[in-house]
Write a structure and sequence with these properties.
The complex is a heterodimer. Chain A is mostly helical. Helices cover about 60% and strands about 0% of the residues of chain A. In chain A, helix 1 crosses helix 2 and helix 2 packs across helix 3. The longest helix of chain A is centred in the first third of the chain and has 22 residues. By secondary structure, chain B is α+β, with helices and mostly antiparallel strands. In chain B, strands 20, 22, 23, 25, 26, 28 and 29 form a seven-stranded mixed β-sheet that branches. A six-stranded antiparallel β-sheet of chain B has the order 17-24-21-19-18-27, with no helix packed on it. The chains are: A mainly alpha, B alpha+beta. At the A-B interface, helix 1, helix 2 and helix 3 of A face strand 24 of B.
């Protein structure tokens, strides 16, 4: 998802992060529907997992690019 | 058998009875209440649900966070730790929680409060539109029938769907205009309406409502001056009255205006496009039907719906001199709404003003058109009523107009219902009360996180929120020591505006809080500092009970100013109720001047008395945490020394690798020096050109962080752009062509006056070259 975001918004790190989060949203909604849980629970699981180190070290990014709204939409 | 003439006469006299009844407030309010209830009915049926639309997630989130801060912690919502890593809530322009409607959110919760706010604001808007139309000469019947054209227009239908509840601030527009009209023509005391409406709008997050209403008020003032142009001696008094109203409106709004001004000055919003809509698009926006693609609004059609069935009434209203200024206001607003589409419109001129330069969407001036259409339609009914009084056959004009206006409610209501039914809704997340921590979060779903005691670092706003690149969503504790070996930190209390910690240190150390720094944070021990944008405290060795409190200067000074303004207005109101007119002569003028100046004086004194620091640009870092302002160009840079006409020199450029593979990241860097005055809005254009195509990396600020005009003289600004060469890009030599341009000046490139050591073409510097190799080793995606 991050690689796709980098292609979609070359040179704009905030937009890349924002695009990634849009994809993350769709994926979380998909997983929530698949496992019949609330969307909020899926988001909480991402947070819990990130904090508890469920993923392989270095595979999840815990920081975000600071907000820089695009001057042109 | 009664003759047809007698029937017409009896209908005419019945209409006179209706006219008299509608002039009475209770019946009118009952009618307006029922209409508003019909409009928001679908919203009330789903009041407990959460709106999943992206903007609603952010804006409703603000309201939720404010409700939490008041209800759970008993604090004013000054700081919002739940979004973007912490932001100055009062200074964030779009929050709606500094207005009277916040009481509804407090009482019923922000989700259930939302439709009630819509209901209340529509009723207020209907009554405001009614009074405004009457003040322009309309009859009660005409004004009642026409009021929904404005107060139930399309923008108020779409607002709840998009989560733009702050757009209901526009419902106060007729009240603000009415205050100026009456304040300049009858009693100055009516100006209080303008002041209250304006302060309400500003507190309600009226980023567009405030400025647009100011434009309407200026128009009203010019109209009043125009009426008295033949008696020039009264003009100074009128101008003085208008100025008093304006100063009182701004004075009453200081509680919010001061923090917003401070925020936007420290983090200016940059808008580079030249928006506009064609005339036919504007017409369809006012008369078309709202369409949807899925749950998203498909186009502008019907977005500002006033209803085509109102057109006959509007045409009837155009007869007569009274219609001229209203028609002119509507025409000017419609022209302004076209923005840049037809080359020039008043929007282009308004954009030169400081506040208006941050407004992107000209089509929102169609809301002013809706008010003009409303007033004209009301005048149309009034003309038909007069005609009927002169001759019963006038009913043949009046009845169709009235019937069509009544029928116009149908598309208006349908628009409200359609928008409400096209919301993506879900039940709010389960509430989990636990220790607050920052999560990486997701701005598209931002309203979810506070429910489970988390903040979302992922952030979108219309302005560049000052956010530290070092915020983390995976910390074991959100308060920690930079040097963990120096001691330990224990959180003992947490709330949005106050954090208590027990700190034991064997040596002096820096404590970091996983939130953004703001100058309003104060510590009971040590010194609060910005550690690369993170809230931090430098502490001495020893055992400390550290209390961090958020006490922002601009909110205190502004709040004090607004309180004084409110007090002054109350004092004048009491005098007015007791029948005391303003004393004439010097004493009267002194009293008025003192009243208007008092809020500003008190705000100014408070501002001067409360110390607060701001972060100098010298410490600014880019998105990746690199220092932007430096003394020397980084190692490996190629010297260019290209001088631009704007007092800027492109000193050097570099690329972090000479050979880049497709799918791989490359860091491109330009090094700028400001030697003179730089026009605001001057940005950097950067094009990567090669066999794989041309890629646009334009950016308005150095490292997308610092405006060129704010770069300290004598220092260098590192303009770092990280770019990924797309997978599948052809091999060969790629070149970065860069220079300066000003999107606000028609996108013109800034001239190169001395090419220095570089090759320059059409004011573009061929700054960097690199080779693209075979597409094989794309960096592996992790998420």
């Amino acid at each position: 998802m991050r690689a796709r975001a980098a292609v979609n918004f070359p040179g704009d790190l905030w937009s890349q992060g924002d695009d990634f989060h849009a994809m993350e949203w769709q994926r979380a909604a998909q997983l929530a529907s698949m496992h019949r849980i609330a969307l909020g629970d899926a988001l909480r699981a991402i947070d819990d997992g990130m904090r508890a180190g469920w993923a392989r070290p270095g595979t999840l990014q815990a920081t975000v690019a600071p907000c820089r709204p695009r001057p042109v939409y | 058998m009664p003759t047809s003439s007698r029937v017409l006469r009896s209908i005419s006299s019945a209409l006179d009875g209706v006219e008299a009844s509608l002039a009475a407030l209770p019946l009118r309010m009952a009618l307006f209440g029922v209409l508003a209830l019909v409009l928001v009915w679908p919203l009330l049926g789903t009041a407990a649900d959460m709106n999943l639309f992206r903007d609603a997630q952010v804006l409703d989130g603000y309201e939720h966070h404010a409700v939490e801060t008041v209800r759970r912690f008993g604090q004013l919502p000054l700081w919002d730790p739940y979004y973007c890593g912490g932001m100055y809530s009062v200074g964030s322009p779009q929050g709606r929680h500094f207005s009277p409607t916040f009481l509804l959110s407090l009482l019923f919760g922000h989700e259930r409060g939302a439709p009630l706010i819509a209901l209340a604001m529509i009723v207020i808007g209907l009554e405001g539109a009614y009074r405004y139309a009457v003040s322009r000469g309309a009859s009660s019947l005409g004004a009642v029938l026409a009021a929904p054209i404005f107060a139930a227009s399309g923008v108020f239908a779409t607002a709840p769907q998009l989560g733009w509840l702050n757009f209901f601030g526009f419902e106060l527009m007729p009240w603000a205009a009415l205050g100026v009209r009456e304040g300049l023509r009858t009693r100055l005391a009516h100006g209080a309406l303008t002041a209250i409406a304006f302060a309400w709008m500003v507190g309600f997050g009226g980023t567009y409502a405030g400025p647009l209403v100011a434009v309407v008020c200026v128009f009203e003032t010019l109209e009043a001056l125009g009426e008295r142009v033949r008696t020039p001696r009264v003009l100074p008094a009128l101008i003085a009255r208008a100025s008093l109203i304006a100063l009182m409106a701004v004075g009453l709004s200081l509680f919010r205006l001061l923090p917003i001004a401070e925020t936007l000055m420290s983090a200016p919003r940059v808008i580079a496009d030249r928006p506009g809509i064609a005339w036919d698009v504007a017409y369809r926006a006012l008369t078309g039907e709202l369409g949807f693609r899925g749950n998203e609004i498909a186009s502008l059609d019907g977005f500002f719906l006033v209803g085509a069935w109102a057109i006959p009434a509007v045409l009837a209203g155009l007869f007569g001199l009274r219609a001229v200024p209203v028609a002119l206001m509507g025409a000017l607003a419609a022209w302004t709404a076209t923005g840049y589409a037809a080359g020039w419109s008043p929007f282009v001129a308004l954009r030169a003003l400081p506040l208006f330069s941050t407004l992107r969407y000209p089509e929102r001036y169609l809301i002013v058109v809706a008010l003009a259409v409303c007033a004209l339609a009301a005048l149309g009914v009034t003309h038909a009523q007069r005609l009927t009084r002169r001759h019963p056959l006038g009913l043949l004009v009046l009845i169709p107009i009235v019937a069509l206006l009544a029928f116009n409610l149908r598309p208006l209501a349908a628009s409200h219902h359609a928008a409400a039914e096209h919301r993506s809704l879900s039940a709010p997340p389960e509430r989990i009360d636990r220790d607050f921590q920052q999560a990486r979060g997701n701005r598209w779903l931002a309203a979810h996180y506070a429910h489970f005691s988390r903040g979302s670092l992922s952030c979108w706003e219309a302005w560049p929120v000052p956010q530290s690149p070092f915020l983390r969503g995976d910390l074991p504790a959100d308060e920690y020591l930079v040097d963990p070996a120096a001691g330990r930190v224990q959180r003992t209390y947490w709330s949005p505006n106050r954090i208590d910690l027990e700190v034991t240190l064997s040596r002096p150390a820096r404590l970091r809080v996983n939130q953004n720094w703001h100058g309003g944070w104060r510590s009971s021990v040590g010194a609060v500092v910005s550690d690369d944008g993170l809230l931090s405290v430098d502490l001495p060795a020893g055992e400390h009970r550290v209390r961090l409190r958020f006490v922002p200067r601009s909110a205190i000074a502004g709040g004090l100013g607004s309180l004084i303004a409110l007090g002054v207005m109350g004092w004048w109101f009491v005098r007015w109720r007791r029948g005391k007119e303003s004393p004439g002569g010097r004493k009267g003028m002194a009293l008025l001047a003192g009243s208007v100046a008092a809020p500003w004086v008190f705000a100014g004194v408070a501002w001067a008395a409360i110390p607060e620091t701001s972060v100098p640009y010298g410490t600014v870092r880019d998105i990746l945490g690199n220092a932007i302002v430096v003394s020397e160009a980084p190692a490996g840079s190629q010297v260019l020394d290209v001088r631009f006409a704007e007092g800027v020199v492109l000193r050097a450029a570099r690329v972090d690798k000479a050979r880049v593979r497709a799918g791989e990241r490359v860091t491109l860097e330009l090094v700028w020096e400001r030697t003179g005055k730089v026009s605001k809005g001057t940005g950097v254009f950067m094009h990567v050109v090669g066999p794989g195509g041309a890629f646009n990396l334009d950016h308005p600020q150095v490292s997308s962080t610092l405006p060129l005009s704010a770069l300290p003289k004598g220092r260098l600004g590192r303009d770092i752009v990280t770019w990924t060469l797309p997978t599948g890009s052809a091999d060969g030599t790629y070149e970065v062509v860069a220079g300066l341009w000003n999107p606000k000046a028609g996108g013109r490139r800034v001239a190169v006056v001395d090419a220095g050591r570089a090759e320059v073409q059409e004011h573009g510097v061929r700054a960097i070259r690199f080779e693209a190799g075979r597409a094989s080793g794309a960096s592996r995606a992790t998420e």
